[in-house]
Amino acid sequence: MLTALHTLAALGAAGLVLSVPGIPLVLALRLRPLTALVAVVPASLLVITLAAEAGHLLSVPWTPLSPLLLAPVLGAALWPLRRRLGAGPEPEAVGPDAAHAAEHAAAVRSFATPLDALAASARGRAAAILTGAVIGGGAILVQALTVMGSVRAVSQTYDNVFHLNAVRHILRLGDASAWTVGGMTALPGVERFYPALWHQAVSLVVQLSGQEIPLASNVVMLLLAGVVWPLGLMALLRTCTTAGPLGWMAAGALAGVTGTFPLTMMSFGILLPYFLSMALMPMVMIVLVHLGGPAPDSPQRLRPAQVAVLLPVACGAAALAHPQAVFGGLVLGVPLLVWACLVRARERLGRGPGTGRRLWPLLTVTAGVLALAVPAWLLLRPTPGASFWTPTASVREAVGQTLSLAGNASPTWVPLGLVMLVCAAAVLRGSGSRWPLVPCAAVMAMSVLARSVPEGPMRYLLTGNWYSDTHRIVALLAVAAIPVLALGLEVLLRRAARSLPVLGGSASPVVAIAVVLALLVASLLSPSARTSTSFAAAQWQSDRLLSADERELLERLPAVVPEDAVIATNALNGSSLAYALSDREVLNVYMSFQAEPEVHLLNHALDEARTDPEVCEAAQELGVEYALDFGAREVGPGSATYLGLNEISQTGAAEVVLQVGEAKLLRMLPCRTTATRAGTA
C-alpha cells in the first residue's frame, strides 16, 4: 500500500506538471477539447523551460512556483486573441484535399451506420476517444511495466546515470537552466548547453510529490507513453483528416502496435529527452498539416491565429526536449509542404485561379522552410566521428522490417506488412485525406536507408543528424504509419459494411473494436514484438548498472554518510547514482566528464592514498571521505579510468562501514604521512 500511495503521489504531481502551466495559454486559444488536451502538454513544457531560464538569469531558486507565476503572464498576453477567436467565423476549407473530403463526407452521410451515429453526438464521440485511449494506453502500460519489472525500477543503461543525476543536480543547486545541467559534467564554473526539459519537468515532480527520483522519472515516462501519445495520435486524426469515430479510436488503440515507439525509446539508451520529443510529435504534425493546408473543413480545423501560436509552442517544446526533433520534423514536414504546393498548383492550373488562391503564400512558406532546412541539416549534425552506428540489415531486410513496422534488428512480420500495404492502398483510393501517405512514405524511406546504407559519406549525409543511430530514426515510423493504418482500417470496414449489411448494423462498433484488437494483439504476439520486448527487458531487468544489493545500500547510505561528505565513485558500475538516490556529493557524476587533475588522479590511484602523499593531498583537498566499492562489473568500457576505486577495499586505504551483499561503503583512513606528522607534533 505504501508503494501504491507513493506512486499515486508521483502520478498526481506528474499530471499537474504536464498540464497546469499550459492551461492559461490553451484557454486563450479557445481550442476544441481533444486538441486542447493534447496541446496543453507542450504548452506546459515550454512554460517550464522558459521559467527555468528566466530563474537562472534572475537568480530565482527553482521551485514549482516559477512556472506557475509565468503561466498566467503568458496567458494574459494572449487573452485578447481569445475574444477575437470567439467572434470570428468558422474556418473555410482551403486544403488540397478539400474537394475529395467533401465527396467522402457526402458518401458517409449517404450510408448511415451506428458508427456514423457516434459522430453525431458528443457522448458517442467521447466514447470512441475514450475507447481508443483505454485500449492503446493500456497496451502500452502493460508492455512497459512488464519490461520494467516495477514502477520503481532503475534503467540499467549507460545514459540513465546522467539523467537521474541531472535531476539531483537541479534540486541541489536550485537552478534548472539547460546551461546548468550541461555544466554538471564540465569543469567547475563552466556552463554549457544540454537539452534539459526532461530533467526540469521531473525535478518539479520530485518537489511536488516528495518521492524519489527514479519513481518520478518513471511515472513521467509512463504518463507520456500511455496517455499523451495515444491522445496525440487521436487528435491528429480528429483534427487533420476526414476520419470518423472508428478512425480516431483505431489511432489511439494502435498507439503501441509497433515496438519502434514508444517501447524502444523507453529502454534503449536510455534516451529520455528524445523520447519526450517524440511523444510531442503528433502535436507538431497537427500544426504542420494546418500550415500546409491539407486539414479538412470541419469545426476541428485550427484557425490561422491558433496555428500561429501553436506552431512555435509545439515545435519549440519538441526541439528543446531534444534538438533531433528538428530533423524529425523536417523529414515529416518538408515532403508534406512540397506535396501541398504541387496539389495546389495542379488545382490552379486545372480549375482556375480561384481554387489556388493560397498557392503563393504556401510556396513562400515552403521556400523559407527549405532555405532553413538545408543548412540546418548540414551544419547542425554531429561530427562524423560521433555518427558511428552501423547498418543492421540488407536492403531487402530493411524494406520488410520497415513495411511491417519492426524495430531495429527485429524480424519482419509479414502479416502486418501486408495490412500496412492494404491500408495505404485504401487511404489512396477511398479516404477523404490522402496527405498521411506523404510523411509515411518519407519516413519509410529514411527507415530503409538508416537500416541498410553502408558506412561512408552517404550514410553520414542521410543519417548523421541522429548519430546514424537506427533506433532513433525508425521511431518516426510510429508517428507516420499509425495514422495510415487507422485511416485505412476505417475505409476498409466501411466498404465491408456496404457489402455485408450485417457488419453495418447495431453491432458495427463491436465489430470495429474486435478488428482493431485482433490486429493489435496479433502484432504484440509477433516474433518482431517479442524481439523488441526482450531487448527492452534486458535494459531494465538486469544488474549491469545497479544490483538489488547496491540499491539497498544507496538507500541506507544517508543514515551513515554526512550531508557535506564527498564519496569517491565509479560511474560505470552504478555507484555514482549515490548522487541521485542518496543525495550525497560524488566525485564522478557521469562517465564522460571534465574535471581537475586531482579528480583524475584519485580515480586512478585513490587506493594508494595512505602511501602516496600526492594522492593523500588530493583527497583532502577535494574532501573525499568515503568511497563506494560496487565491484568490477561495469555498464560500458572505461575501467582503466577508475583503477584506483575498484580495489580500494583490498589495499588498506579505507575501511568498510556498511555492506549489503557484495556492495560496500568504505570510509577513507587517515593517510600514513598525515598520521606520522600528527604523532610527531
Automatic annotation (TrEMBL):
The keyword RNA-binding does not apply. Keywords: Membrane, Transmembrane, Transmembrane helix. It comes from Brachybacterium saurashtrense. This is Uncharacterized protein. The chain crosses the membrane at residues 6-27, 34-52, 64-81, 126-145, 215-237, 246-265, 271-292, 304-321, 327-347, 359-380, 412-428, 435-453, 473-493, 500-525. The keyword Transmembrane applies. It comes from the Bacteria. It holds the Pfam family DUF6541.
